[in-house]
């Protein structure tokens, strides 16, 4: 790392007469063919887009599914360089589904949050191990399936390590932390993270080539360099070294580039934009299981957003209006604002059955049961399933991991069964009591309309609105 810094410093001293304006023009054109200055110029472009970025106090974060055998070498490298070290052990699995993928991504994000508490301002993320089977899978996915949904590709890697690093990269980008990816698994995760959230990872994302020979040959075959050399990712070519060493060398270049930018007092606005941007094409509407909300893509039509909320919270056939409608994140997240409206519609539907049952049968229990059955049918037992899972998880789980594991289990346990029965009985009793206290005969009078129906609608609206409150603050 010291040798790399000296090399860069000597090169910079040779260009003492270089004017700041010329340097800016050279950086904008990626320095052409003037050697190592091309790398510094690319880093300047990235640093320019992230004001006040800091590259001091680095930490090496190693993601591995084999804690004992895979991380010792990186730990030694970090100790020799006097750099903090943090290891994250990911649960090893032979098959990766969507839930496990999201869990691994959350684990990666939690790891970054933990390192931020120690005031680290730059990170080298190392992904271990990268077996030949994984290398072949990555080559197949990133070379023959380009353009597919990135979450589908992430699940198809069958690697929770890649999913965890992907979540870590997105979390670090959210805090504007410079990230150096080292190792084939980390670089694959970086490519997928840039596809998931190109706007979030635009500020700075570096990659080192310090992989074993079989990985470096695969990288050249797949064409990672062409995928990494895009406006959202800067690719720095360093010698093929053991994992961790190349990333620390890149940090030395980052420090030098940061000092160079400060010494030249380059203006931060407007930022220098890399040349050769990808051609602007109208993106097709994503149809995979998940997409990402991104400011670079045009927003979906409002009708699609509204119908997504209808399809998510009810069993109404919204797909008959838009056949390719799906629960992708890019349309589901904006649809949260319509949740209270859907609650109003469900509450009104239940209120109609409550009033109708009271008029037709003159019986409060019958009316209450009909109203509850109507709301359950319209929502497809969506909320009742959540209630049962909550009782099962908190009743049978002793730790956070146990609670989450039980909550993801689709089977119904004793706690869930009893909790659902008690909650349903409580709902029926409250509605029956409310109807009896506001009516005195079988004839429907204004209090039934104004109090009972209004309360029922308000309950459904506030129930859907509570999910927005939880998402916002928790």
Report on this model:
The chain has 474 residues and is mainly α. The chain is 59% helix and 6% strand. It has a six-stranded parallel β-sheet with strand order 2-1-3-4-5-6, sandwiched between helices. Helix 10 (184-196) links the parallel strand 4 (179-182) and strand 5. The radius of gyration is 28 Å and the shape is elongated. The two termini are 42 Å apart. One of its GO terms (cellular component) is plasma membrane. Joins adenosylcobinamide-GDP and alpha-ribazole to generate adenosylcobalamin (Ado-cobalamin). Also synthesizes adenosylcobalamin 5'-phosphate from adenosylcobinamide-GDP and alpha-ribazole 5'-phosphate. It catalyses: alpha-ribazole + adenosylcob(III)inamide-GDP = adenosylcob(III)alamin + GMP + H(+); alpha-ribazole 5'-phosphate + adenosylcob(III)inamide-GDP = adenosylcob(III)alamin 5'-phosphate + GMP + H(+).
Task: Please supply descriptive tags for the structure shown above.
6 strands, cobalamin biosynthesis, adenosylcobinamide-GDP ribazoletransferase activity, Adenosylcobinamide-GDP ribazoletransferase, 59% helix, 6-stranded parallel beta sheet, Rossmann fold, transmembrane helix, 21 helices, Nict_dMeBzImd_PRibTrfase_sf, disordered N terminus, 6% strand, 474 residues, mainly alpha
């Amino acid at each position: 790392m010291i040798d790399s810094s000296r090399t860069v410093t000597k090169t910079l001293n040779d260009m003492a007469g270089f004017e700041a304006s010329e340097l800016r023009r050279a950086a904008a054109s990626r320095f052409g063919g003037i050697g190592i200055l091309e790398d510094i110029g690319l880093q300047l472009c990235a640093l320019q887009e992230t004001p006040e970025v800091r590259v001091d106090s680095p930490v090496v974060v190693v993601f591995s599914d084999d804690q004992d055998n895979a991380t010792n070498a990186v730990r030694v490298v970090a100790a020799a360089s006097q750099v903090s070290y943090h290891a994250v052990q990911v649960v090893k699995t032979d098959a990766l589904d969507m839930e496990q993928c999201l869990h691994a991504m959350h684990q990666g994000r939690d790891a970054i949050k933990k390192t931020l508490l120690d005031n680290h301002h730059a990170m080298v993320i190392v992904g271990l191990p990268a077996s030949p089977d994984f290398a072949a899978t990555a080559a197949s996915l990133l070379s023959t399936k380009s353009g597919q949904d990135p979450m589908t590709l992430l699940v198809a890697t069958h690697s929770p390590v890649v999913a965890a690093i992907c979540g870590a990269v997105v979390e670090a980008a959210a805090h504007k932390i410079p990230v150096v990816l080292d190792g084939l698994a980390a670089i694959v995760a970086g490519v997928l993270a840039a596809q998931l959230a190109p706007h979030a990872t635009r500020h700075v994302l570096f990659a080192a080539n310090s992989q074993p020979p079989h990985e470096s040959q695969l990288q050249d075959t797949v064409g990672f360099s062409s995928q990494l050399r895009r406006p959202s990712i800067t690719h720095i070519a360093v010698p093929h070294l053991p994992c961790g060493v190349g990333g620390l060398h890149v940090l030395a270049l980052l420090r030098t580039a940061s000092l160079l930018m400060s010494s030249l007092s380059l203006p931060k606005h407007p930022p220098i934009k890399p040349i050769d941007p990808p051609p602007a094409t109208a993106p097709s509407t994503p149809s995979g299981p998940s997409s990402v909300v991104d400011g670079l893509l045009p927003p979906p039509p409002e009708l699609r957003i509204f119908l997504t909320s209808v399809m998510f919270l009810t069993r109404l056939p919204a797909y008959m209006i838009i056949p390719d409608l799906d629960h992708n994140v890019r349309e589901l997240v904006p649809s949260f604002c319509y949740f209270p409206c859907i609650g109003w519609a469900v509450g009104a539907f239940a209120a109609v059955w409550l009033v109708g049952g009271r008029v037709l049968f003159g019986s409060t229990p019958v009316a209450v049961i009909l109203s509850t059955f109507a709301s359950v049918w319209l929502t497809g037992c969506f909320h009742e399933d959540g209630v049962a899972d909550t009782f099962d998880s908190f009743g049978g789980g002793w730790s956070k991991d146990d609670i989450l594991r039980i909550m993801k289990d689709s089977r119904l346990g004793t706690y869930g069964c009893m909790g659902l029965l008690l909650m349903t009985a409580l709902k029926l009793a409250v509605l029956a009591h409310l109807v009896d206290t506001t009516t005195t005969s079988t004839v429907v009078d204004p209090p039934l309309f104004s109090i009972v129906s209004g309360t029922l609608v308000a309950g459904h609206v506030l129930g859907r609105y509570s999910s927005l409150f939880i998402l916002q603050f928790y």
